[in-house]
Amino acid sequence: MQVKSIRLKNFRNYEQALIEPDAGVTVFTGPNAQGKTNIIEALHLCCLGRSHRTPRDEELIRWGCEEAFVKTQTLQQDGTHEVSILLSRRQKKKKNVRIGAHPAERIGELLGHVCGVLFSPEDLMIVKSGPAERRRFIDMQLSQLRPAYFYALQRAQRALNQRNALLKEIARQPALRSTLDMWDEQLAACGAQIAQNRQEAIEALSLCAHQAHASLTEGREDLSVRYVSVAAQAADPKQTLLERMHAARQEDLRRMTTTVGVHRDDLEITIDGKPARLFASQGQQRSAVLSLKLAQLELARRERGEAPVLMLDDVMSELDPARRRQLIERIDRVQTFVTCTDLADLAGAKKGAVYHVSGGTLTRE
Ligand SMILES: Nc1ncnc2c1ncn2[C@@H]1O[C@H](COP(=O)(O)OP(=O)(O)O)[C@@H](O)[C@H]1O
Ligand SMILES: [Mg+2]
Predict the structure, then answer these.
(1) pLDDT at residue 53, as a whole number
(2) Which one of 178, 259, 260, 339 has the fewest beta carbons within 10 angstroms of its own beta carbon?
């Protein structure tokens, strides 16, 4: 897949911008706080319908403006695709998505028209932080590749909210207790679908990340990723989820929240058999994240039959020269967007278009 153009209007600190990237590496360079990440964010918005930095779309609208607009055109094996997103402060519908000329009824319809893998310094959190970051990592990957997964996640979230609200309500009205069964059933059904997808994806990811890491560390370290879930490896995930929810019902009623389900899943990331979160050095953790990102890229390429675009936001300066070289070798083969404060960080890379970013203005070199 190749991004042919990105057009911005009143997006973050850009009044107007048009980016016509190279098939290879497109670079955005400039001092801090000029608008480099904002470009990556706009592209991410077209990939997944949301920013990677904030859940609040109104933050993306240029200060003092009513609306923001982003349009991304891609060329894929089956032809040209176009995603347009209009964000509004005042309109009842705050986010309007179009696929080509066709208005999308659901956000999920944009998935797959622009497909990208983002690697930023915050991704270190995948290794260092709690389970929520790791679920987000696998969910973003799977949502882009499989819209049905995205819809299952949405259903699961709604059912979870309803069930949690009901658990609080039952504390006041015990007679409502029997209505829990309905939500258990729904949660187990979409939970099973989510668990099956995660299981399969994480197995493939583990193999790929293991290989990438072996190559990054010249065979010295053994990286592995394992799916941790009540439903992992279950012969019948739905039945297993139902049984575990029933067993936890007293506890759920007492705590007024749902304690069992795929919303508690985790990925266990180990280096040489030890949890990377606890025992790996900062340098090892960085390498592990790089391996995970390279694996993500490879899996997306396999599943789609063509590579997604790679977005590298400020990561070059954080890698040591050897890792940087390894990454630069790989980006030769995929369309890549790189941001950096210093072009020297990209020494050795075949640079295509270079944009200088200053206060929301782009100047092509
Ligand atoms: N909604 C907005 N309207 C106008 N400017 C914004 C908005 N949101 C952020 N900014 C500005 O964008 C700049 C940060 O852009 P960013 O792309 O994160 O910088 P960097 O070049 O360091 O990656 C800051 O100057 C910030 O004030
Ligand atoms: Mg930035």
Answers:
(1) 95
(2) 178
At position 109, the amino acid (one-letter code) is E
pLDDT of residue 330: 78
Low-confidence ranges of the chain (pLDDT < 70): none
- pLDDT for residue 195: 98
Report whether CATH 3.30.870.10 matches the domain 124-305.
Answer: no
User: What per-residue confidence (pLDDT) applies to 187?
Assistant: 98
> Which of 322, 314, 326, 317 is CA-nearest to residue 345?
317
Bridging pattern class, strands 223-228 and 266-271: antiparallel
Please tell me the number of the ligand nearest to residue 56's CA. Answer: 1
361 CB within 6 A, ligand 1: no
Best of 12, 51, 66, 362 for a ligand 1 pocket test (most atoms within 8 Å of beta carbon): 12
Cβ of 78 less than 6 Å from ligand 1? no
3-state helix, strand, coil in the chain (%, to 5): 50, 25, 25
Ligand nearest to the CA of 357: 1
| Neighbouring C-beta atoms of residue 200, cutoff 10 Å | 12
Q: Where are the domains of the chain?
A: 1-115+308-365, 124-305
pTM of the model: 0.94
In CATH terms, the fold of domain 1-115+308-365 is Rossmann fold (3.40.50)
213 lines ligand 1 (CB under 6 A): no
